[in-house]
Amino acid sequence: MDMHELTRELQIKNKTKIVMLVGDGLGGLPMTPDGKTELEAAETPNMDALAAKGVQGLSIPVKPGIAPGSGPGHLGLFGYDPLKYQIGRGALEATGIGFEMQPGDVAIRCNFCTLDADGNIADRRAGRIPTEESAPLAISLRQIQIPGIEVFVEPVKEHRFVVVFRGPGLGGNVRDTDPQATGVPPLEPEAVDEGSRKTADVARQFLIQAREILKDETKANFHTMRGFAARPDLPSYEEVYGLKAAAIAVYPMYKGLARLVGMDIVGEATSLDEQMQVLKENWESYDFFFIHFKYTDSTGEDGNYAEKVKRRVQLDACIPAITELGPDVLIVTGDHSTPAYLKSHSWHPVPTLLVSDCCRPDPHTSFGESQAITGGLGQFEAQYLMLLALSNAGRMGKYGA
Amino acid sequence: MDMHELTRELQIKNKTKIVMLVGDGLGGLPMTPDGKTELEAAETPNMDALAAKGVQGLSIPVKPGIAPGSGPGHLGLFGYDPLKYQIGRGALEATGIGFEMQPGDVAIRCNFCTLDADGNIADRRAGRIPTEESAPLAISLRQIQIPGIEVFVEPVKEHRFVVVFRGPGLGGNVRDTDPQATGVPPLEPEAVDEGSRKTADVARQFLIQAREILKDETKANFHTMRGFAARPDLPSYEEVYGLKAAAIAVYPMYKGLARLVGMDIVGEATSLDEQMQVLKENWESYDFFFIHFKYTDSTGEDGNYAEKVKRRVQLDACIPAITELGPDVLIVTGDHSTPAYLKSHSWHPVPTLLVSDCCRPDPHTSFGESQAITGGLGQFEAQYLMLLALSNAGRMGKYGA
Questions:
Q1: Does A62 contact B1 at a Cβ distance shorter than 8 Å?
Q2: Interface confidence (ipTM) of the complex
Q3: Least CB-CB distance to B358: which of A29, A64, A378?
Q4: Residues A287-329: pLDDT tens digits?
């Protein structure tokens, strides 16, 4: 059974406030067999104080042994079964830059590239052409016309831009045209299924016109298309949980994810301090706040253990700004682990902390992987975290008579 | 979602080696309330050393409270949902003696029996007739002809043999003909479903001819049929995991189980020492090794606590022969518990140990039921163990963008 069938039926509205603080890639590994994880090595007095009052456990992002991308990682935290709901890269990117995809839209991540005289790719990213040069090029592609299709072109950053096709009968399963190599020509867009044939045709027409428009540009005389994706059909937080939800994120992808589940993107914070300011300013207007902190992940991806430890300290330092607002439920978690040891997302379950006045505390007085193993929340699939949030906020009625 | 949909998509090939050492019926119970389980009572210095480096937990063979047979117990460990994939005894037995069942085949375990003058069963196992006498009798049944059906008869051991029917439209759901009692006649084969009617008919024809062929034999003048089973349709390890897998087992049933998931049966070991030799000889040729040790189960079935403890010590002693080969992932587990106290398979979750360079160790320094309760793997369904094995070996990509 989809848990949302239950939450739709059992949801209760009240005045409580729920805060979910997501340290991206929060979980980690020791660098040596006897070492500590990044979280354990970090001085986190505020989280430790929360641990003493609250209950912790380990969140399994998808299923044991599965390392998720940001999409499934966050969908799980938001309570959407990440094996049922899947979001393609294009849809993520488009939504992340503020483009509001409509049902039926197909979004594509595009990279400007440089072709040599033979039409082979010389540089897959057009020398990471600066945004101020690439944005006008992207905008020049808006002149492309395809009969029966509305076309949107949005600059992103450096060599990246997004194309969205809107029209009837467009499926999202088309193969990338980036050959992932230089010295060869870009690939043709090929439909993976019958329902995406029209999309592949439209993409082909787009590429023919783009080649003509860009042909005399020296830095970026063509582009590739990757991550074709239809807009996923996700029910909203308001509908499934009865929550008016706000997302306070810095990076486009996480804003995009939040927008897909119907959260409002509030503020234009560029740092954790500014995010705390935005939280305070919007406190009265929302029931639920998703706060995203990127650097616990990116430092792990870089394999920079010491920096990852520092970022956990930084995350810890924002806790008082949240607690002084008096949330009824405060959750600290991550969408997956990103151990510096592996330099990548991993499958390891994520330390997760929940504090409310009725959370049944466990005996732990600090927050970390080793504590979470024997924490009161046990090991649980991330998709159940929102049920715990709602219940701890008094927002879920009893199931069955 | 079937996890194999994911593993097919996410599998990565590399040079890592995974070893799964299965102590059949590994888990146990104390004989008295304050006692130790068999595993806890055993001196297992090698497993304890692994526990210090690795992570342990409790594997739930099927679902909490379900005691599995060998079939579902192993399917779970192999990563095949044991509630989705079911293997009948006949199919197990046939595969275990080296008979390669084809899709559509139906296999039946047969027992020679002795009928009295009235046609009632006098001895359900024909006095456990020695193999050298029963094999020629089984072979004499190969003269049986049934129009449109290919019939195979294979001797097994003592009173046991296997019959396989091959032909179109044969279902596997037919009731046993063994009445489980003496002084009564054998039962007729009855189809349980429409699709198995033809099989029941074929079995009836087989039994009529067999009765005629055996009628003058003094020790075994008839046979019963049990465990009718079609060949289960299991995808292979190679396909779902990208693993070239070898099974090193002594007993036919476990070889059969491994063959059903596409493992190669390597060596002809008759002892754990010989199994270690076979492992070493085949180390370079395979990615994955399933090593099966029977006696941790059979001693439990006998209710022999002391002997079961010894068998755990014996299992422990083989660990150095494995570790000196340098596996990237080493798993020690069981297909279920077989507490001497219960003299049977049980539902209790099974202590399971995983060692790799990125397993996120837990604080435990010995291996046993009490430690596994608070181990880092938590309690998990056996069907996810292969996902953990693959991830720890770097053989699974990230799910989703």
A1: no
A2: 0.88
A3: A29
A4: 999 999 999 999 999 999 999 999 999 999 999 999 999 999 9
Residues of chain A neighbouring B388 (CB-CB closer than 8 A):
64-65, 347
**Which class for A363: exposed (0-12), middle (13-18), buried (19 or more C-beta within 10 A)?**
exposed
A38 touches chain B (CB under 8 A): no
Cα separation, B13 vs A278, whole angstroms: 46
| Residue among B112, B118, B103, B105 nearest B130 (CA) | B112
Residues of chain B in contact with residue A82, where contact means CB-CB under 8 angstroms, are 399-400
**Candidate from A33, A65, A342 with C-beta closest to B396:** A65
For the ranges A70-74, A98-102, B217-221, B387-391, which has the lowest average pLDDT?
Answer: A98-102
Q: Taking residues A31-51, what's their average pLDDT?
A: 95
Q: Which of A401, A379, A377, A92 is nearest to A251 (CA)?
A: A92
Cβ within 8 Å of residue A368, ≥6 positions away: A36, A37, A39, A40, A351
* Domains along the sequence of chain B with CATH: 3-86+234-392 (3.40.720.10), 93-230 (3.30.70)
Over residues B330-361, the pLDDT tens digits come to: 999 999 999 999 999 999 999 999 999 999 99
Strand partners, B163: B108, B153
Q: Which of residues 50-79 of A touch B (CB under 8 A)?
A: 58, 62-73
- Nearest by CB to A89, which of B363, B396, B401? B401
Chain B, nearest residue to A33 by Cα:
B53
Distance separating alpha carbons of residues B74 and A135, to the nearest angstrom = 57
Q: pTM for the complete prediction?
A: 0.89
Inter-chain contact A89–B363, Cβ cutoff 8 Å? no
pLDDT digits (tens, 9 = 90+) for B237-296: 999 999 999 999 998 889 989 999 999 999 999 999 999 999 999 999 999 999 999 999
Q: Tell me the pLDDT of chain A averaged across its residues.
A: 96
Q: Which residues of B touch A344 (CB under 8 A)?
A: 398
Residue B125's identity, in one-letter code, is: R
Give the Cα separation of A4 and A9 in Å (integer).
8
